[in-house]
Amino acid sequence: MAHAEVHDHNTPLEYQSETGRLNILGFWVFLGAEIALFSTLFATYLVLMYRTGDGPTPHELFELKGVLIETFLLLTSSFTCGIAIHEMRRRNRKGLFIWMIITLALGAGFLGYEIYEFVTYVHEGAAIGTSAFWSGFFVIVGTHGLHVTMGIAWITLILIQVARRGLTPQTSAKVFISSLYWHFLDVVWIFIFTAVYLTGMVLHNG
Amino acid sequence: MANPQDSLSREHGGIPWKHVIGYILSIILTALALWVTFETGFSTRTILIIIFIFAFLQAALQLLMFMHMTESSEKKSKLTGNTQTGNILFAAFVAIVIVAGSVWVMGAGHGKHDHHKMDSKMEDMKMDGDMKMEHK
């Protein structure tokens, strides 16, 4: 940081280094690719909507209450993650830690519920190999769940780095990028909630 | 203090209203989607159109209110904000083409018995083929 870059005191730390700025822009490009990745999984799920074969239908197994709890946990975690970034921009490291740890706890709660949901389905006779429909279901929801798992691990490691090195232009760019990733997981979940669960229940009802 | 028109400095206030409003609107949109799906008795097609509009609105809320998509890293230039927004809009376009295109081409999702119709059509075609074979 010995460069002659002059910054207004109000410029957020994550935008103060050239690397930070480029990494944030690059991460948005990565998120565009993630949208394309998830769109192929949504296409597969929707195309295979009625291919339940001899297995159970989603109408028989989907339970609204569990899905709503998962939705609420992830949406709230996205909100608390936003607050954490707000605190970081106020240079409040303690606030950043408190809200990020709440975010991770809510994310872990979401993951726990999802694992419980998967185990329940398998016990009721719907595993990944039961029918084309359930393959599509477990792949899309599982891919999202894997992203949440990676997000929790990644943010935990970044928080450890912030605890050791403090809030610098380097560490805060990392925190900001991981927050983009976490919000993006909620964006994907909005579409899973709508296209996988609500659509599945509507189409198999009629 | 900072110039209130500067989007990068607005974050310095005490209560992050942008986030609070985004969160409340997200909850309202989720509740409305549930209500439309289970309580209104609209046709399946109408329900699907409405809940997907709600999903896109809620995604836009996340991108704009929580993720600061339009925010640029340089104060004097809108370049990075515009690049980010353009990139995500293009990705959304690709996603819609992939999903709507696949569903349309594969013929599922239009009605519950579509695939039965397709099966019987295929059977007809097979029978036609058999008959032609016999003629030869």
TrEMBL record, chain A:
One of its GO terms (cellular component) is plasma membrane. Keywords: Cell membrane, Membrane, Oxidoreductase, Transmembrane, Transmembrane helix. The chain crosses the membrane at residues 25-47, 67-85, 97-116, 136-160, 180-203. It is an enzyme of class 1 (oxidoreductase). Pfam families: COX3. It is found in: Cell membrane. It catalyses: 2 a quinol + O2 = 2 a quinone + 2 H2O. It is a multi-pass membrane protein. Its main location: membrane. Its EC number is 1.10.3.-. GO terms for biological process: aerobic electron transport chain; ATP synthesis coupled electron transport. Residues 25-201 form the Heme-copper oxidase subunit III family profile domain. It comes from the Bacteria. PROSITE patterns: COX3. NCBIfam families: QoxC (TIGR02897). Catalyzes quinol oxidation with the concomitant reduction of oxygen to water. Belongs to the cytochrome c oxidase subunit 3 family. This is Quinol oxidase subunit 3.
UniProtKB/TrEMBL annotation, chain B:
One of its GO terms (cellular component) is plasma membrane. Its main location: membrane. One of its GO terms (biological process) is ATP synthesis coupled electron transport. The keyword Acyltransferase does not apply. It catalyses: 2 a quinol + O2 = 2 a quinone + 2 H2O. Keywords: Cell membrane, Membrane, Oxidoreductase, Transmembrane, Transmembrane helix. The keyword Transmembrane helix applies. The chain crosses the membrane at residues 20-38, 47-68, 88-108. GO terms for molecular function: cytochrome bo3 ubiquinol oxidase activity; oxidoreductase activity, acting on diphenols and related substances as donors, oxygen as acceptor; proton transmembrane transporter activity. Its EC number is 1.10.3.-. It is a multi-pass membrane protein. It is found in: Cell membrane. Belongs to the cytochrome c oxidase bacterial subunit 4 family. Catalyzes quinol oxidation with the concomitant reduction of oxygen to water. NCBIfam families: QoxD. This is Quinol oxidase subunit 4. It comes from Fictibacillus solisalsi.
